[in-house]
Amino acid sequence: MPPPPPVANSFLAQLDPGIWATIAARTRSATYPPRTQLFHQGDPAGHVVVLIEGWVKVTSTSRAGKEALLALRGPGDILGDLAAVDGLPRSATVTALFPVTARVIDGQAFVKAVTDNPPAARALLRHLARGLRESDRRRLEFVSASGSARLAALLLQLADQHGRATPSGVVIDLPLSQRELATAAAISREAVARTIRALRERDLIRTRHRGVVLRSPEVLRSLARDVSDDAG
To answer: Which of 6, 96, 194, 213 could form an SS bridge with 32, CB 3.0 to 4.6 Å?
Structure first.
C-alpha cells in the first residue's frame, strides 16, 4: 500500500517529486512507535526528520513546567529544520501520536541540499511561513475571542487540516486529551470540559475513543465567528 499523500501546504507538498528524490537519496528510513519522542526540547541541533506516514504533536514546556501544544504535524511535514538552520537547541518536543514512518537526514546535509536547490529552499521558506502564520493566528485568537470561541476555532482548524468527511460528520482521529486541547486553545481544562459537554448536549459534536466527530461544522463556525483567520 502506498504511503498517504502529503498534507496540503506541507514541505513535501511544495516539492517536485524529482527534487525530493534527490534529497531522499541522502536520507535513511526510520520508524517510531506511538508515544516515542523524536526530539526533546533543549537537545542540541542534529538531524532533520521528514514525516512519510503518521502524526506527531509538537509541544513546549515553560520554566514553570507547563506544557503547551504548539502544533500537529503529519505526512509531508518536516521537523527539526529550524535547529538545523540556526544551530540552536531544539525549541520543542516532538512525540509520535501513531506509528510513524519517516526519512531522517543529517542537519548539515539537509542545509546543503536546500542551499544547492532553489526550489527546495523556496519550499522550506513556505513551510516556515506557514508556521509563523499559525503562530500569528493563535496570538490573535487569544486576545480577540472567548474561551468557547477559541475551542470551536481549534476544532475547526483540526478538522480542516486532519479531518475526514463521513456520513456522520467530520472525524478527527487524533488522540488529544482535554488538557492538550486546553493548552492549544489557551483556556482552562475545566472550560474545555464545559464547552465539550455543551456541544455534545446539542449534538454539535460527538466524542469517541481517540477522537471527535464534528456533527455541525457550520454551527461551530458561527460560534468561532469572532476569531479572525487572516492575521499576517
So the answer is: 96
How large is the angle between the packed helices 118-144 and 107-115, nearest 10 degrees? Answer: 110
Global model pTM greater than 0.90: no
Helix, strand, coil in percent for the chain, rounding step 5: 40, 25, 35
One-letter identity of residue 36? T
From residue 63, alpha-carbon distances to 42, 60, 82, 142, 186 in Å are 12, 10, 21, 21, 17
- The amino acid that residue 155 corresponds to is L
- Summarised one tens digit per residue, pLDDT across range 58-105 is 988 888 887 788 888 889 999 999 899 898 999 999 999 889 999 999
HSE-up (13 A, CA, CB side) for residue 140: 16
Cα–Cα distance between 145 and 31 in angstroms, integer? 40
